[in-house]
Amino acid sequence: MKKTLGFILVLVLSVICAVSVFADDAPAMLSVKASKDQANVGDAITVKLDISAVKPIGRVSATVAYDASVLTFVSGDGAKAENGVITIEQLNGLGTVASVNLSFTAASQGTGSINVTSCAIYDAFEEKLDLIGSGTTIQVAEASQTETTTQTEETTTEQTTTEQQTTPETDENGVPTQGVLVDLQIDNGNLKPPFMYSIHEYSVTVPYEVEKVEIEGKTASLQDHIWYTGNAECVVGHNVRTITVTDINGNQTVYTINIIRLDKDQTETTASASDPAVQTTASSETGKTQTTKKDKDIKSTLIPALYIVLIVLIVALVIVIIWIKKKASGGKSKKDPDKKNEKQRSKIKVSNKNNKNNKN
């Protein structure tokens, strides 16, 4: 019976630990927000990185890529910038919420993308937390020109030119003759889906042994300008590279490549099931939202079930304890009558002996 009681106690403690671990296994969230999504040349723009986690955050290390042809980096909390890449390091005592402010100036007309290419978040015990992140874009227009009639005429001319360019020229295969990629090569892994000029987002999974991934795009026109962001060196987990193609009229097309470097004991199948970025095709944000919703649905179903199991086990434990007490008290009550009968029999034997002695 002691073995049974011990087994039940171990089972209850296991369920309690499982509930606690499951409740704490929530990803850290990273959001990127700009003070304005539309700006004029010369405007100041603040981009805020908000990080939140269930566990206290001990250390944050991140890399942010931005389009240096459109935006100029000014300053940031613990941030250093070089060639369109910002490195951020924040250490110690951040609590469960942390934020980093980055200041930019709108340098020229166009669409400036700001993406977190890599981010590692650790708790106070240097345990890495799962991360769901995002990026943002800022549309920069020319400086306001409304003071003179000449400026108004220039604006009208620009609008007319833009309208004429909404339908770009195409070749015999229907591919635009400028402003897009016609080929995209990667030295490790395979693009998913296969490259097509009209698909602007791809995913690539590489094994742990691959530390560097090179990408190269070919533009439709020799007059197109091509701009790469992100690092060729890959950290374990989610890495983002972008290719921005700008035609001679200033129109831009951005291609995003999500590179997933597996951990030592990971396979491509497990990575695809756990990392939203691997499931990205035409829209990574949609995939991330669906995965997050699925995780929440699973938690909302499993946690109540675990608590019900815990309650049932506790009730079972109480019933077993009561049963053990009753059995113990019942055994004593059976032994007492036996002792009483034994005493009565001994008295009868003594009485019989006395009677025999009296007769003699």
Topology:
Layout: H1 2-24, E1 28-34, E2 38-40, E3 44-66, E4 71-76, E5 79-82, E6 85-106, E7 110-123, E8 131-132, E9 135-141, H2 149-164, E10 181-186, E11 201-206, E12 215-219, E13 225-229, E14 237-246, E15 252-261, H3 268-274, H4 284-359
Parallel strand pairs: 1-8, 2-9, 11-15
Antiparallel strand pairs: 1-3, 3-6, 3-7, 4-6, 5-6, 7-9, 10-12, 13-14, 14-15
Helix pairs in contact: 1-4
Supply the key terms.
single chain, 360 residues, alpha+beta, Immunoglobulin-like, nine-stranded mixed β-sheet, four-stranded mixed β-sheet, 4 helices, elongated
DSSP, total strands: 15
Please identify the structural class as seen in this structure: alpha+beta
CATH architecture tag of one domain:
Sandwich
Tell me the strand percentage band: 35-45%
Largest sheet: 9 strands, mixed
